[in-house]
Model the fold of this input.
Amino acid sequence: MGKATGFLEYERRHEAYELPLERVKHWKEFTHALTDEDAKIQGARCMDCGIPFCNNGCPVNNIIPDFNDLVFRQDWKQAIEVLHSTNNFPELTGRICPAPCEAACTLNINSDAVGIKSIERAIIDKAWSEGWVAPQVPKLKTGKKIAVVGSGPAGLAAAQQLARAGHEVTVFEKNDRIGGLLRYGIPDFKLEKWQIDRRMRQMEAEGVTFRTGVFIGKEPLPPSINNAAKDTLSPDELREQFDAIVMAGGAETPRDLPVPGRELAGIHFAMEFLPQQNRVNAGDKLADQLLAKGKHVVVIGGGDTGSDCVGTSNRHGAKSVTQFELLAQPPQEENKPLVWPYWPIKLRTSSSHEEGCERDWSVATKRFEGRRGKVEKLIAARVEWRDGKMQEVPGSEFEMKADLVLLAMGFTQPAAAMLNAFAVDKDQRGNVRAGTDGERAYHTSVDNVFAAGDVRRGQSLVVWAIREGRQCARAVDAFLMGASELPC
Ligand SMILES: Cc1cc2nc3c(=O)[nH]c(=O)nc-3n(C[C@H](O)[C@H](O)[C@H](O)COP(=O)(O)OP(=O)(O)OC[C@H]3O[C@@H](n4cnc5c(N)ncnc54)[C@H](O)[C@@H]3O)c2cc1C
Ligand code: SF4
Done:
């Protein structure tokens, strides 16, 4: 522990950021890593409290007190060793993780938590800029071949771990670029995409082969799921060529809103809207991009995806942006003694909300109306929640002008076509059935076929996908070799 009295002496330091009026003019990231001095002070605030709840709150179990101390001592090289020992891609989590570790920080009981996420980002950004992140090429090859289906954070983490264990790994991706939702979904202003390309180059040097534009399945996917594949391989063909397969295809089926008027033009899933802007930012030319410019935009769904639609609509130059949420407005502050060290339900205002947006809660959309086949307004009503049941408040119906409606109500399950093609068992929610413990950890009902990330656990977070990819890699390695030295 660097400084015994640091938590008493120093306030939490925040990353510098561009003001909303400036940042909405561009698509670049707008927060900047802590300076060395600020990171040192942030690290000094860690109490090394004996039982590091933060380490448990972090899904990849980052060894947080150790790297806090190393940053306080400005031993950045050792800090990245510690950070990389549990997390393949801290440049992702240091930017877009909601930081459940900070909710679990002991200092958070009666003060501001240590800014763990900002320290994580400072460590990895320095490591890349100093040239300390080098490929880890295995000394021995096992001769085993593994296919990873899907190139989101779960597939990438699994592929990197398996390649480092000496296996020959090929990642198949149906879209034209690697990254899953990191690439097509999460806006560039939250995560610039060269971060993915840089890791890809490291992984290629470690022996991973990437094959984009290849769909693994049999039946076509529904139009609500992005698919730019030119080639198709069946799971049977994959099984003939590889010793093991990791399914890491995400949970891509969007939740729909089947109310009258849903068929009108101008009503789209968030994932029809967001990836288009990712593509344009990458230099692609789109014939008919969905744009919010000059429109009254209504985003339905109050989560992360909805917030990303708000930020993107404001950058397009929307006339107004409104976000509706079906659930009641959560409290401004959590009752810390009651909920600590768990992730609290409280009002969260994202950087996109700060850029301009009306938010409203307890609102149910009843129907859409329009003219000449185009949406013009939505009719909604207020709802009350009693004993977990939703009831419409009588006489509360109202209408709202809407030229563009974005449905961001989450994802229900993986593409059924993919799961059917592999003939794996599903759980009650339609995800791939596979446990995380014991001899058959991450193993599906089909021999040699494993599953990790959203395809197994349902819609979740990048950090959980990395955890599952790492643990699944260990399970595959042990299955093929009889034992594994990969970390769990
Ligand atoms: C708009 C949006 C914003 C988000 N923001 C955040 C955030 O800020 N922080 C956070 O932690 N999480 C966020 N999430 C959630 C996070 O992105 C996901 O939990 C995470 O990406 C899941 O990783 P994954 O590897 O399991 O799947 P995915 O990232 O979904 O990747 C799956 C990949 O598999 C490919 N694939 C699927 N089927 C096949 C097939 N049959 N053949 C070939 N390829 C296939 C898909 O094309 C896709 O590229 C966000 C999600 C969305 C939609
Ligand atoms: S990965 Fe997320 S939970 Fe873990 S230390 Fe980083 S910010 Fe915290």
